[in-house]
From TrEMBL:
This is ABC transporter ATP-binding protein/permease. Gene3D superfamilies: ABC transporter type 1, transmembrane domain, P-loop containing nucleotide triphosphate hydrolases. The chain crosses the membrane at residues 12-33, 53-72, 133-151, 157-176, 246-264. Residues 333-567 form the ABC transporter domain. CDD domains: ABC_6TM_exporters (cd07346). SUPFAM superfamilies: ABC transporter transmembrane region, P-loop containing nucleoside triphosphate hydrolases. Residues 17-299 form the ABC transmembrane type-1 domain. It comes from Paenibacillus chitinolyticus. Keywords: ATP-binding, Membrane, Nucleotide-binding, Transmembrane, Transmembrane helix. One of its GO terms (molecular function) is ATP binding. InterPro entries: AAA+_ATPase, ABC1_TM_dom, ABC1_TM_sf, ABC_transporter-like_ATP-bd, ABC_transporter-like_CS, P-loop_NTPase, Type_1_exporter. The keyword Membrane applies.
Amino acid sequence: MLKEMFVHTKAHWGLLLTGALAVLFISFCEFIIPQLTKTVIDDIIPGKKADALLETGGLIVLTALVLGLLHFTSSYVMTVVSQKAVLGLRNKLYTHTLRLDVKFFDRSRTGDLMARLTGDVNQLQELVSAESLSILADFVTFVAICGYLFYVDWQLALLTVATLPFLFISSRFFSLRIKSAYRRVRQISAELNNFLQDTLSGIRMIKSFASEENEEKQFVKLSDRNRIAAVSASRLSALFSPLTDWLNYIGMTLVLLFGAWQTMRGNLTVGEVVAYLAYLRLLQAPIRSFSRLVTKIQQSAAAFERIGDILDTVPEVRDQEGAIVLPSVKGEIVFYDVDFAYDEGQPVLESFFLKLRGNETTALVGSSGSGKSTIADLIARMYDVQRGDIYIDGYPLKAVTQQSLRSQLGIVSQEVILLNGTIRENIAYGQPAASGEQIEAAARAANAHEFITALPQGYDTPIGERGVKLSGGQKQRLSIARAFLKDPRLIILDEATAALDTESEQKIQQALSRLLPGRTCLVIAHRLSTIQNADQIVVLEHGEIVEYGKHDVLLRRNGRYKELYRIQFP
Ligand SMILES: Nc1ncnc2c1ncn2[C@@H]1O[C@H](COP(=O)(O)OP(=O)(O)OP(=O)(O)O)[C@@H](O)[C@H]1O
């Protein structure tokens, strides 16, 4: 972990050195101030040296000013370093995550990945903080003061440090418990958030089942758990401070009593006792920060482990060494003796053969779960086959770069993903160089221009969470516009399952009849009415081709296609 953080911080060694020097000078200044106080009490007061009094006062104020400046420098410099280190790590993590394959995302929960990219990275940032660096200063201060105290009076020194182990133990004891108590509070708050999100976004369902009361009860229960956890966490924190103060006072009293006694006997001066008391306070602070640092290192180690899990994941789908750039293709695709399973032991395709002829439209039909989307995903190389090969114009998919394959592939899916941004930006997604005219031409071809220009801000209308809400048909037409703009050789079209109104449906069919000709197309068909003109219809069941041919031929055959057709058109 430290190595990884070091990689990201070493580029800023100049700043790190400045920070380290600043904290060393901090310890020096902290050591000096009690010495100056002692001089006032022991020398200046008895000697009635009024001039020196002013001088020393000025020196104390100056030292305190330098101390402030040094504190500022160290914390500013360390924030800069930690922000830069975190930026490096977060960018590396994001870049790596984006290049992981779909299988990884199938297995991962989005919320969890986001937590790793934000919370866990921030946790590491805390490790490279001014506070952590000040441990160095604390350590130096600690050793210097202890050395000095033992040098002046070892008995008093022993008394001074006597309470420190208790302070350390109680700090550890409480900080561990406080940490886990607050973790629980955070957990319950997260549950509460999830609950709120679920119920508020599902408000229509709640109303339609008239289950408001039920939801209320659950909410009250969760809120109550949150209250109990929060109270028990603050009880611990509330107990910790007074206990620490009490231990500190015990230490102070011991030093005061013994110091006073020694002074009475003439072994110590008043100034020395005052200086001892000041040093005692300076010793107590590092003890608390040592304990905090131990906790921070533990938390950071856990965070790093979670980040490391991602960084160590090697995508199964990746460009082979020496992968070639796929030249512009005609688009003939052949599945040759392919085996594929998402999970070991549960094959979806076995010894599978299929040919999509170039410039033709092949429709895949079959019941739910028969493997239609799997075939489309394999062509887009979202997954790699376990045996056999898929060829495009004779090139094995595994031998070409993913970028060169996908740049020739357009996917028009029923689940249209629109990103926050304007309609124009959404159509031009992935083609930032597209001109306004090209975008408009694509929208016209997709029958989307009309509804876009009817919106108040036209192509500049924001969509996404905060923007206008588009209907299913409108979204689909934007997706077709994207495909027109990309102008790919291959099209994968996942037909909408939801019934669209007749007008919308007509406009989409019209747009598609312009998009598909002259390209190799794979249509995942849910409604048989739309694929009657396909060059080839492939009927799948349980990952096997049970029939293929043209619509009329298949209808005459009285097989599975006819059966499916009868269900839809009784
Ligand atoms: N990401 C996945 N992980 C594990 N199994 C999967 C995954 N996606 C699909 N499957 C399984 O693979 C089989 C084929 O699914 P696929 O999605 O290809 O069918 P489909 O014909 O497209 O179905 P539908 O018409 O319902 O979309 C099913 O048994 C399904 O449960």
